[in-house]
Write a structure and sequence with these properties.
The complex is a heterodimer of chains A (880) and B (112). Chain A has 880 residues and is an alpha+beta fold. Chain A is 53% helix and 17% strand. Chain A contains 28 helices and 22 strands. In chain A, the strands form 3 sheets. In chain A, strands 13, 14, 15, 16, 17, 18, 19 and 20 form an 8-stranded mixed sheet that branches. A 6-stranded mixed beta barrel of chain A has the order 2-3-8-5-7-6. A 4-stranded antiparallel sheet of chain A has the order 12-21-11-22. In chain A, helix 17 runs antiparallel to helix 24, helix 24 packs parallel to helix 27 and helix 25 packs across helix 27. The longest helix of chain A is centred in the C-terminal third of the chain and has 43 residues. The radius of gyration of chain A is 37 Å and the shape is globular. Chain B is α+β, with helices and mostly antiparallel strands and 112 residues long. Chain B has one domain: Orthogonal Bundle (Arc Repressor Mutant, subunit A), CATH 1.10.10. Chain B has a 3-stranded antiparallel sheet. In chain B, helix 2 crosses helix 3 and helix 2 crosses helix 5. Chain B is globular. The chains are: A alpha+beta (880), B alpha+beta (112). Chains A and B meet through helix 1, helix 2 and helix 4 of A and helix 3, helix 4 and strand 3 of B.
C-alpha cells in the first residue's frame, strides 16, 4: 500500500473514528461469543465459565483494543480532544490569568494578522474581475532616463494607436489619463473627484456592466460628440444622493458641462481608484511623436497568448518603430506586465512579518513563564500520569493542547479586532494619504490570513505549553507523587522567576513612560489647535485638458501659465466673502517630499529638509511672523537672485544657534555643480507650525514664481463659511480660460481632519496597548511572587513554630521581592534615562510605574504570607 | 525450557505467515482463522487470540488482505478477511524464505 493509500486510510479512520470503534467492538464481541459457544458445545462448560475461559484465551481485550487504536496511527488524536477539554477547564479555574494571557496574546495576534493582510494586499494584489489575471499594463520605458527619473515616462499617444491597431496578443488596449476636478452640479452640490479620461475599451477590459445607463462608447470620442461622463458609485451618491434621475443631468468638470450617461456599480473603480470616466478625445495626429497627454495603457491578453508572447510581439514592434523613428524612439523599450504590478518591495514587505512573529513569541514566552507557576501546582498530577505510563511526549502534548485553547481564543479575538480595525484603519490610512485605496483592496480578512493566524496559534501553543512542560517533565517527577512526607526536588524556577520579574519590571519602567509621554504630548498639543483652519478655503489651480503641455514647452508657455495663475489669484482675492488670499506651491507637510541641501558650500554637510514656495504675504496671512531679517517682497519674485527664509527652530539646530542671515544653501543635483541653485537666507520665520497643523514641518521657504510650477495651491481666508464659496471658486477658473481648472477645493480643516483623527486614534491605541501590557506585567509579578511564597508555607510554619515573629517573617520575604523589583527598576531607569526621565514630568512617570510594580510585588508576597501565618503551625508543617 | 512458551514465541514472529496461508485457503473471519490454524496444526499451534486482530489490521493496511462484513452460516454478522493478489505474492516469497531457513537449520542440526 503506498503512503498515499495509507494516509487516505488513516484519514478515513480519523473521520470515521466512531465507526472504527464500533467495528472493533463488534468484531471482538463476535469472537468472544463464538469462542464461548464452542466451549459450551465442545467442553460442556457453563455459559459463565465458558465466557471467562474465552476472555482468558483472548488474552486482554482492552490491551488488544489499545493496540488496534495505536495501529490506526492517529490514536493520539483521541487523547487530544480530552486534553482540549481539560484546557478549557484550566481557563475557567484561573480566570484572572486567563484574561491577562488571552489579552496579551490577542494584541500580538491582532498586529500580526493586520500586517499580514495589509502586506499581502500590497504585494500580491488580486484583481477581482473576470479573468483578472489576464489584465496587463503596457508602457514605454525610456532607457536614457529610466535610472534617474522614474516619473518621466515618455508620452506615448502615437505608440498607443499603433499598438492598439497592430497587436494580436493584447486585445481591447485602452489608454487613460488621470485627472482631478472639483465636480459641481446645477443645484450647487460639489465633490472633489479623481478619475480618468479614457478610451471606451477600458470598460471592455474590465467586463463590468454599469449599474444604470451605459459605459463610454466609441461614438463619445468623436470631436463633435457632446461631453459625457460615467460616474462611480460613491460620486453618484455624493452628487445626486443615488437618484436614478441623475442620468441625463449635467456635471461641471473643469471647462466642460458633461452629461451623466451611466453609473458604475459599488466597488468598481477600475483601473485603480477612479470616481468618474470621461472620453479621452486626443488623437495622435494632432501631436508630434512623444508629445500629447500623459497616458497609461491597459489591456487583456488575447485568448491563447501568454505574457511572454505579448512581450515578444511588443518588442518586435518597438524595434521596428525605433528603426523608423530613431530621433524619438531610439531609447524606448515597450514593456508589458501583469496588472496591477504589486509592490516591488515584496520580499522586504514579507520579511516585515518576522518582527510580528517575534513579538508573538516574546508574548507567548511571557505567558509561558506565568504558566510555569500554574504548571508547578500540577506536579502531582503530572507525576501520576507519568507513573501510569504516559511518556514525556504525551505529557508535553497534553500541556501544549491545553495551551492551544488559550492561543486559539486569543487568535480568534485577534482576528476579530483585526477585521474590525483593519477596515476603518485602511480607510483612515488612505484618507491621510489624501488618496483612495485601489479597488482590489479587500477590507476583510482573506482565508490566507486566517490560516496564518491558525499557524501562529499552534506556534504560540508550542511556546506557551512547551516551556512549562519541559520544565515540569525534565526531573525525576515520580518523586512528586501525592503521598505524605514525600521529599523531592520539585519544580524549581527560582532563577527563572527572578529573571522574569526583573525583565518585566525593567521593560515596563523603560517603555511605558515613553509611550505615555508621546500620548500626553499628542493630546496636550494637538498640532494647529488654535489655527482657524475652518475659515480657510484651499484648492489647486492647474492647466487642465484639453490643454496638453508640450514636453518641450518653452518660456512662452510657462509665462502664459504664470499669467493665468496670477489673474486667477487677483480675481479670487476680489471675490465677495474673501478676506485675504495667498498662495504656495503645495499644501505644506502633506505627502511633502524632502530634498537634500548643503549649507555654505560644505558638501560634507547635507541636510534633508522640506521646502515650500510661497507668496510674499503668505506668512502674514497664516499668522506667522518674521523674527530676523526680512520677509519676501514682490521684487524677490521677479528678481534673478535666489533667496530663502528659514524656520526659526530648524535654523537654531542647523546653524548651532548662530544667525543664519546671509548664509547660503544649495540644492545639489545629480548633474553636479553645474545647474544647481544657491539661495541666500534673508529672513527667519516663527509660528508656521501652527499654520501647517498636523502636517510635517517645513524648514525652508522660497518666493513663489508661478512660471516654475505646474500648479499652485491657493488659500482664501473667508468672512463666512468657506463651503459657500466652493462653487464660485470652481467656476471662476475655467470662465477665465478653458484650460484653467480648480481642483480639490475644500475647507482647510477637511484637509487636516483625517490626520488629526489618525493621531488621536494612534494615541488611544497606544494607551490601550500600554494598559494591557502594564496589567499583564502586574498580574505576572503578583502571580510569580505569590506562588513563590506559597511554596514556602511549610518553612513559614516551621519558623513560626520556632518562635519567629510575623513581622520578621514578612520582612524576610519582602527583602527578596524588593531586591528583584529594585533591580528591575534600576535597569529600566537606566534604559530610559536618556529620554523622558530628563524632565520632572518624565521622572514622575517613571516613579509612578516603579511604585505600581513595587506595590503589586509586595502584595504578592504579603497576601499568601499572611494567609500562611494564620493557619495552625501543625497544618503548615503538613503542607506539601 | 517450557515447551508451550517456546512455541508461542516462535509463533508470534510467524503469525503473519500463518494468517496469509490460512486465508489462501479461503476467506474467513478472525475467530475462524484462529480455529483453522489450530485444526490444521492438529492443536500444536495455538494462536494468541488477542494478537490476531492487530496482525489482521497490519496486513490490511499493507494491502495484503481485505475485509468486509458478511453473514455467517448461523446468520450472524461477522467481518470476513480475504487474501489479495499482493498477499498471495507476499505469501509465496515468505514461504520460500521460511523453507530456506528451515533447510539451513535442519542442515546444521543434522551434523554430528
Amino acid at each position: 500500500m503506498s503512503w498515499f493509500d495509507g494516509a487516505r486510510a488513516r484519514l478515513r479512520l480519523l473521520l470515521a473514528r466512531r465507526a472504527a470503534e464500533e467495528r472493533m467492538d463488534e468484531e471482538i464481541r463476535f469472537h468472544l461469543e463464538m469462542e464461548t459457544d464452542r466451549l459450551v458445545r465442545e467442553e460442556g462448560l457453563e455459559p459463565a465459565e465458558a465466557r471467562r475461559r474465552a476472555l482468558v484465551a483472548f488474552g486482554g481485550v482492552e490491551k488488544c483494543k489499545e493496540e488496534l487504536r495505536d495501529g490506526r496511527g492517529l490514536a493520539w488524536l483521541g487523547g487530544l480532544s480530552l486534553d482540549l477539554k481539560l484546557g478549557f477547564r484550566m481557563l475557567v479555574k484561573y480566570p484572572v490569568l486567563t484574561v491577562a494571557s488571552v489579552l496579551a496574546l490577542a494584541v500580538a495576534f491582532t498586529l500580526a494578522a493586520a500586517w499580514f493582510e495589509f502586506s499581502t494586499d500590497m504585494t500580491l494584489p488580486r484583481v477581482p474581475l473576470e479573468e483578472g489575471d489576464r489584465i496587463v499594463g503596457v508602457r514605454n520605458r525610456d532607457l536614457a532616463t529610466a535610472d534617474r527619473d522614474y516619473s518621466s515616462e515618455p508620452r506615448s499617444l502615437h505608440d498607443f494607436e499603433l499598438w492598439r491597431d497592430e497587436l494580436e496578443s493584447i486585445q481591447d488596449l485602452a489608454a487613460y489619463s488621470r485627472i482631478a476636478y472639483t465636480a459641481t452640479t446645477d443645484d450647487g452640490r460639489y465633490a472633489a473627484l479623481a478619475g480618468v479620461r479614457t478610451t471606451p475599451s477600458l470598460f471592455r477590459v474590465a467586463r463590468v456592466a454599469p449599474l444604470i445607463g451605459r459605459a463610454l462608447i466609441d461614438d463619445d470620442l468623436r470631436p463633435e460628440a457632446p461631453p459625457v461622463v460615467v460616474l462611480g458609485y460613491s460620486a453618484w451618491i455624493r452628487l445626486f444622493d443615488g437618484d436614478r434621475s441623475a442620468l441625463g443631468k449635467t456635471v461641471r468638470l473643469g471647462a466642460e458641462h458633461a452629461t451623466v450617461v451611466g453609473v458604475m456599480p459599488e466597488g468598481f473603480a477600475f483601473p485603480v481608484s477612479e470616481e468618474f470616466w470621461t472620453p479621452l478625445r486626443e488623437r495622435a495626429i494632432d501631436y508630434a511623436r512623444r508629445e500629447g497627454p500623459r497616458i497609461a495603457m491597459i489591456g487583456r491578453l488575447a485568448p491563447g497568448y501568454t505574457l511572454e508572447q505579448a512581450q515578444a510581439e511588443l518588442t518586435m514592434i518597438g524595434e521596428r518603430t525605433a528603426a523608423a523613428y530613431p530621433d524619438t524612439h531610439e531609447h524606448l523599450r515597450p514593456e508589458v506586465r501583469r496588472f496591477p504590478r504589486g509592490n516591488e518591495m515584496a520580499a522586504i514587505t514579507a520579511l516585515l512579518n518576522i518582527p510580528f512573529i517575534l513579538l508573538l513569541v516574546v508574548v507567548a514566552a511571557n505567558v509561558a513563564t506565568l504558566l510555569i507557576a500554574r504548571t508547578a501546582a500540577r506536579e502531582s498530577e503530572i507525576a501520576l500520569r507519568s507513573a501510569l505510563g504516559a511518556g514525556r511526549r504525551r505529557i508535553l502534548l497534553q500541556l501544549v493542547a491545553e495551551a492551544l485553547v488559550t492561543t486559539s481564543l486569543a487568535g480568534a479575538l485577534g482576528l476579530a479586532v483585526a477585521r474590525w480595525g483593519l477596515g476603518w484603519g485602511m480607510d483612515l490610512f488612505w484618507e491621510v494619504q489624501q488618496s483612495r485605496p485601489p479597488f482590489w483592496f479587500d477590507r476583510g480578512l482573506s482565508p490566507s490570513t486566517v490560516l496564518y493566524v491558525c499557524a501562529l496559534a499552534v506556534l504560540g501553543a508550542l511556546v506557551v505549553g512547551g516551556i512549562p512542560g519541559l520544565r515540569a517533565t525534565h526531573r525525576r517527577i515520580w518523586t512528586r507523587l501525592p503521598q505524605p512526607g514525600a521529599v523531592g526536588d520539585g519544580m524549581r524556577f527560582g532563577a527563572l522567576a527572578t529573571g522574569v520579574i526583573i525583565a518585566q519590571v525593567a521593560l515596563c519602567v523603560a517603555f511605558i513612560p515613553v509611550a505615555v509621554r508621546a500620548a500626553q504630548e499628542q493630546l496636550r498639543d494637538p498640532k494647529g489647535g488654535d489655527f482657524p483652519a475652518e475659515a480657510f478655503l484651499t484648492g489647486r489651480l492647474t492647466r487642465q485638458p484639453p490643454f496638453a503641455p508640450r514636453a518641450s514647452g518653452g518660456p512662452d508657455e510657462a509665462r502664459r501659465t504664470a499669467e493665468l495663475f496670477d489673474e486667477a489669484h487677483r480675481r479670487l482675492t476680489a471675490e465677495p466673502g474673501v478676506v485675504v488670499a495667498t498662495r504656495a506651491n503645495r499644501i505644506p507637510g502633506f505627502n511633502h517630499p524632502v530634498a537634500a541641501i548643503e549649507l555654505d558650500g560644505d558638501s560634507a554637510r547635507i541636510l534633508r529638509v522640506r521646502g515650500l514656495s510661497v507668496d510674499p504675504n503668505f506668512f502674514e496671512v497664516m499668522g506667522a511672523r518674521i523674527v530676523a531679517g526680512r520677509a519676501f517682497t514682490d521684487g524677490d519674485v521677479s528678481a534673478s537672485a535666489d533667496v530663502a527664509i528659514v524656520d526659526e527652530a530648524w535654523a537654531a539646530e542647523a546653524f548651532a544657534g548662530r544667525s543664519p542671515i546671509g548664509r547660503r544653501i544649495r540644492y545639489p543635483t545629480r548633474d553636479g555643480e553645474a545647474g544647481s541653485r544657491v539661495y541666500e537666507i534673508v529672513g527667519v520665520v516663527a509660528g508656521m507650525d501652527r499654520a501647517i497643523g498636523p502636517g510635517e514641518k517645513v524648514a525652508v521657504y522660497h518666493p513663489l514664481k508661478p512660471e516654475e510650477h505646474a500648479g499652485v495651491q491657493f488659500y482664501l481666508r473667508t468672512a463666512g463659511s468657506p463651503e459657500a464659496l466652493v462653487s464660485r471658486v470652481v467656476d471662476l477658473a475655467p470662465a477665465m480660460d478653458p484650460s484653467l481648472g480648480a481642483s480639490e477645493v475644500m475647507p482647510l480643516e477637511d484637509v487636516w481632519r483625517p490626520v488629526q483623527r489618525s493621531d488621536a486614534i494612534f494615541t488611544v491605541v497606544v494607551v490601550v496597548v500600554v494598559a494591557i501590557i502594564l496589567l499583564f506585567a502586574l498580574i505576572g509579578i503578583y502571580a510569580l511572587t505569590s506562588f513563590a511564597v506559597t511554596r514556602r508555607t511549610r518553612e513559614i510554619g516551621i519558623r513560626a513554630t520556632l518562635g519567629a515573629g510575623p513581622l520578621r517573617i514578612l520582612l524576610t520575604l519582602f527583602s527578596r521581592v524588593l531586591i528583584q523589583i529594585g533591580a528591575g527598576i534600576v535597569l529600566g531607569a537606566t534604559l530610559v534615562s536618556l529620554t523622558v526621565a530628563r524632565d520632572p514630568a518624565g521622572l514622575r512617570l517613571v516613579g509612578g510605574v516603579a511604585a505600581a510594580m513595587l506595590v503589586v510585588g509586595l502584595a504578592g508576597c504579603a497576601v499568601p504570607a499572611i494567609r500562611a501565618l494564620r493557619i495552625h503551625p501543625m497544618e503548615a508543617l503538613r503542607t506539601d | 525450557m517450557n515447551a508451550s512458551r517456546t512455541q508461542k514465541d516462535a509463533l508470534r514472529g510467524s503469525l503473519d505467515l500463518l494468517v496469509l496461508k490460512t486465508l489462501s485457503l479461503g476467506p474467513m473471519h478472525g475467530w475462524g482463522i484462529s480455529q483453522r490454524i489450530q485444526q490444521i496444526s492438529r492443536g500444536v499451534l495455538e494462536v494468541n487470540q488477542g494478537s490476531l486482530y492487530p496482525a489482521l489490521q497490519r496486513l490490511e493496511k499493507e494491502g495484503l488482505i481485505t475485509s468486509d462484513w458478511a453473514t455467517t452460516e448461523n446468520n450472524r454478522r461477522a467481518r470476513y478477511y480475504e487474501i489479495t493478489a499482493a498477499g498471495r505474492r507476499a505469501l509465496g516469497e515468505e514461504l520460500e524464505s521460511w523453507r530456506r531457513f528451515a533447510a539451513a537449520l535442519e542442515a546444521v542440526l543434522a551434523t554430528n
